[in-house]
Amino acid sequence: MGLLDMLDNINYMHWSLGFVTAEFCWDLFLILRQRRTVKENRTPNDDVKKLMDEETYKKARLYSLEKINFGIIKDFYHELELLGITLSFFLAKLWNFSGKSIQYLGFADELIQSNMFLLQTTILSFVVHLPWSLYSTFVVEERHGFNKMTLGFYFKDTLKKMAVSQVITTILVTPLIWLIKWGGDYFFIYAWAFTFAFTMFIFFIYMDFIAPLFDKYTPVPESPLRTAIEDLAKSISFPLTKLYVVDGSKRSAHSNAFFYGFYKNKRIVLFDTLLDDTCNPMIGLDEDGNKRQFPADDTATGSTSGKGKGCSQEEVVAVLGHELGHWYHGHVWKPMILNQFLILGMFYTFGILVTNKKMLADFGFVDEQPTLISLLVIFQFIFSPFNRVMSAVSVYITRCFEFQADRFAVGLGLGEKLQSSLVKLVTDNLSFPLADKLFSTFNYSHPPILERLAAIREEMSKKSKSE
Asked: How far is 285 from 166, CA to CA, in rounded Å?
């Protein structure tokens, strides 16, 4: 029996669900290992005591346990939901319903039906997953002091995201389906070129036109913090054009910072939750944007005595030294290029698999072979083993990039402040400092804090010896 005969004899739905179930069991095994690590380490060891006091450790441990327990229950539900939807041929039934919906509106076109199908799946997904999201936000995050949203803001924000996402999806999917049907034997090239151009377009307009729909991005006024960041950018020829603070505190107490932009038009965004009270240039501004006065002795020295959460000016600069290390080493465009080759290959493979009518028939589509459904089945189910492997590879590569960016910051002389900023971020975000080795290998895109600090100290030691 040849390979083609074997492919004709297998049930693609059963094979796909078998892998998805095996994947779920593997993830459950990993998370249970991490849960055991958290449960067994009731008190901080000597290394952890250098990072946080016992009270903070206890809070981080309880927060981690609650997230893990909630995540296990949620994942069990999602697995049962996926099995139920697939085994009951729900996708085929929903596709037929979407066809009847557009017929009622006076249409009979696959492109319109595809968008109706996506709209209906979005609405159903929102309704089904709403209780989980509400519990996560208003129970788990609220209990541990991170949620800052009201119920009204939550629904307004969620519905706005759904609307924007639906518009973007429609703009992407409609031409993509048309290109696949029109492109003939070389459709995969046209499909890849369009998705690449569309991705670049969204990347280009996102921060100027989409992100402001959800958050307020305020230019950082003249201040010691702005001067320090601009000096850092100049020292490594980073083409900084704009510097913003985003009001992340209206959603959560978690903190972050990032840069974005093309070529000579780079911008840096700081979450207001990243900045402590001594260096936050937004504190004390009135409605006219009048600048506050900064206590020179505190901001110049980066002293953190008597402060609440957040990083001092020197620590923020160290965090950005790490982020700019990603820019210096090309950690944005290198994965982007790799992903384009992968997407091109996946579209080419899709072109081979889509000719197999039995594949969609196994998922309940006997009379119709819609292009959108072919994309969903092949990319979500058939490619799931490949996606899993690439996910593990991506985690490994990202961890390597994080170490490299840390080394870059150390090379700039920011090692000490980078360490103290990482410790503050861990404590402020109640990140549990201990991790099961196998769990972290497959799940942590950033190295565990103890491992990361050790690598920074080692790099600082090498740097001091070479000087």
From this structure: 37
Task: Give the number of other Cβ atoms within 10 Å of residue 4's Cβ.
Answer: 9
Cα separation of 300 and 135, whole Å? 43
DSSP state of 243: E
Model confidence over 40-77: pLDDT tens digits? 999 999 999 999 999 999 999 999 999 999 999 999 99
Which pair of structure tokens corresponds to residue 462?
């090498």
Give the Å distances, CA to CA, from 319 to 39, 220, 305, 431: 31, 17, 20, 17
- The CA–CA distances, whole Å, from 8 to 12, 13, 355 equal 9, 13, 12
For residue 219, give the 3-state DSSP assignment.
strand
DSSP calls for 6-24: HHHHS-HHHHHHHHHHHHH
- What CA–CA distance (Å, rounded) separates 251 from 353? 43
Report how far apart, in Å, the C-alpha atoms of 236 and of each of 230, 239, 247, 261, 324 are. 10, 9, 28, 17, 9
Cβ burial, residue 42 (10 Å; 0-12/13-18/19+): exposed
Please choose, from the candidates 430, 223, 206, 452, the residue with its C-alpha nearest in 3D space to the C-alpha of residue 319.
Answer: 452
Phi, psi of 272 (to 5 degrees): -65, -25
pLDDT digits (tens, 9 = 90+) for 364-383: 999 889 999 999 999 999 99
The answer to whether 46 and 433 have CB atoms below 8 angstroms apart is no
In this prediction the pTM is 0.89
Please state whether 330 falls in left (phi above 0), alpha (psi between -120 and 50) or beta: left
Per-residue model confidence as pLDDT tens digits over 207-264: 889 999 999 999 999 999 999 999 999 999 999 999 999 988 888 888 888 888 877 7
Task: Give the catalytic positions in this structure.
Answer: 323
Q: 327-355: b or e for each residue (b if 16 or more CB lie within 10 Å)? A: bbeebeeeeeeeeeeebbebbebbbeebe
H/E stretch holding 240 reads: strand 240-246
Q: Write phi, then psi, for 194 (nearest 5 degrees).
A: -70, -45
Contacts 24+ apart (CB under 8 A), 216-222: 216/246, 216/247, 217/244, 217/245, 217/246, 217/269, 218/244, 218/245, 218/246, 218/247, 218/282, 219/243, 219/244, 220/244, 220/245, 220/270, 220/281, 220/282, 221/281, 221/285, 221/289, 221/291, 222/291
Q: How far apart are CA 57 and CA 61, in angstroms?
A: 6
- Angle between helix 415-428 and 313-328 (nearest 10): 100
Q: 359 with 377: CB under 8 angstroms?
A: yes
CB 370 within 8 A of CB 95: yes
